[in-house]
Amino acid sequence: MSGRRPSAGAARAVAALILVVAALLAIPTMAAPPPRLHAAAPRVTAPGRVLTLHGRFFGAERGSGAVTFSGREPRTGAYRSWSDERIVVVVPASFESGLVRVVTRAGASDGLLLTDRGDLPEPVAGERPSGGPPVVTSVSPAAAAVGQPVTISGAGFGASAAGAAVRFTAAAGAAAFAALPDGADSGPAVETSEVDLDYVRWSDRRIVVRVPAGARSGVVSVRTSTGASAARDFQVRTEVGTIRYGDPRGYAATYAVTVTVGEVSAAGGNDLYLWIPAIPATPAQRHEAEPTANARPVHRHPAGVELFHLNDLAAGGSHEVRRRYRVRRYAIETGIEPSDVRAYRTGDRFYARFTGGDALVPSGGRLPGVAERAVRGYVNPLWRARMVFDYVVARLQPASAGGARAAPGGADPMEVVLAAIDRRRAAPYEYAITFSAVARAAGIPARPVAGYLIGDGGRAAPHYWAEFYLQDFGWVPVDPAAGRSFFGYLDSRRIVLAKGVADPLPIARGRRVRYAQVTGLQTVHEDAVGALNEYRTRWQELTVTGRF
Length: 548
Fold this sequence. Notes:
By secondary structure, the protein is mainly beta. The strands form 8 sheets. Strands 11, 13, 14, 15, 18, 19 and 20 form a 7-stranded mixed β-sheet that branches. Strands 21, 23, 24, 27, 33, 37 and 38 form a 7-stranded antiparallel β-sheet that branches.
């Protein structure tokens, strides 16, 4: 069959069509328009609540897109759904009143104002009676792991955390305080701690705290000077591992400082300020009774030392500040599965605080190189901490003299650590500081711990150890001076005196004194002001007066 030749007009039409297609292909693809945010529901919300955003050009999938709350993005798991015109996302724990936006590769949308329910001035449901205990109306989220933030809304919390605390049900054996209020739980409670940086935000109607170490599923309540709130249900997630507290031992102990005055100028008064450590309540160390003292402190530093003030001291006089404690101590045993260990949230204040340098734990210099050699390329935080521990135990040998004493007063912290590493010898203080410094250089939050080992006869010997932090789990104890068995384990024959450095601001016009031989982790012991020419201070070691 013979073919038919196309007409000249048809040929010209086909050629024109080809030219049009070619021209269209040569036109660059138009960029996607930036997202447009039309509505957000609800506009009054709170952390942990679900927020729905409506608009256009969000994209069919999230991809690299994000929702920002006052410029901050929530975690990836917060997104429930994402489509071109609708996004469902959980409000993050860090949320405060401000603008919400949708951000894509094409740009950012205009912002819509969201209001934090906790910032509303209207009375909340269940408003407390005047002068009564605080009222908790919500806890969000209702389940979280140790170290994760929780928002508590209500009324009557006070303007700050001074003299107040948030209480969680304590893990078995971990008991820092008395039973929770209103008979909500038969067990004891563990409280949030300034030493652990548990407080994120505190106002009269809203508290944001990190779940403290030693907490377990049960209830949560708020305690202030006016009383304790009714308890609310709360679940503590424990996907990373377990921590057990056992082998309880009770100790009655006394800590005292004696001041003997020599010469005093006739003209003018004088003041002596003593920064005295207070034995802390921790998940493994419970106060069986309220500590007693023959004097009242005038201030308590967040790191746990208390300030006592002696004034107008007379020549030839003698003064004593004495505190008595009844402490029940528990052994700590951890069980952690390395594959379950989480990466650190490196952007928060906690991580920066415990991976940077301070007045006793150095940073920088040779330490990153030492840490790199110690961790041997391991990435998992638990294994990195173990490698640092093994390095310190293998590198350092116990010093033949010096016991547990701290470095000489005024010694540079870097010199203390490098001297221990280079000379390969250390007292317990150097073991603890070196582990903490190398762990921090490896990106592992860590801190030294000061305290006492209690012998069979009840004698308290000064000692130092350390602990490192795992995300969503808490603090893990180590005692490199005691040997390889003390990784993730600590016996109950000890009393903690201090965790991490205490570096109080100086008293105006005061003459600062630090005693290297005094057990502890503080940068100052005394501030002398005025016409106090000659005095002598005796800082006594902790004395165990009984066991139970």
